[in-house]
Design a protein that fits this description.
With 104 residues, this protein is mainly alpha-helical. The protein is built from 4 helices and no strands.
Length: 104
């Protein structure tokens, strides 16, 4: 059994770069899917419907399309927003290989 503990590990620059490379590769793959398949037919995971339902339940303000159009990344940077997102995210962490460092 490994004794590596991600919670206490140093943030090594080479590891961060490797995560960035993987994230960019995944982003490119998803972009190809997003631009070639109609959104109504697109499925990125087998949990898409469950993820959406849970997302709307926890973030009802984003059900309104006009509200989403005015979204800014600053909304995610508050302490409250980070905590809300973390609670939402942990629901699915045991269902797949989801991590906060890589796009899924």
């Amino acid at each position: 059994m490994s004794t590596f503990n991600a919670e206490t590990a140093d943030n090594l620059e080479d590891i961060e770069k490797q995560f960035a490379v993987v994230a960019v590769e995944q982003a490119e793959t998803y972009w190809k899917l997003l631009t070639s398949i109609p959104g109504s037919k697109l499925r990125l995971t087998k949990f898409d419907d469950e993820i959406y339902e849970n997302f709307i339940e926890r973030f009802p303000e984003y059900k309104d399309v006009e509200r989403v159009k005015k979204f800014t990344d600053g909304e995610l940077k508050t302490k409250e927003a980070k905590e809300r997102w973390r609670k939402f995210f942990t629901i699915f962490e045991k269902k797949s290989r989801i991590t906060t460092s890589v796009l899924y």
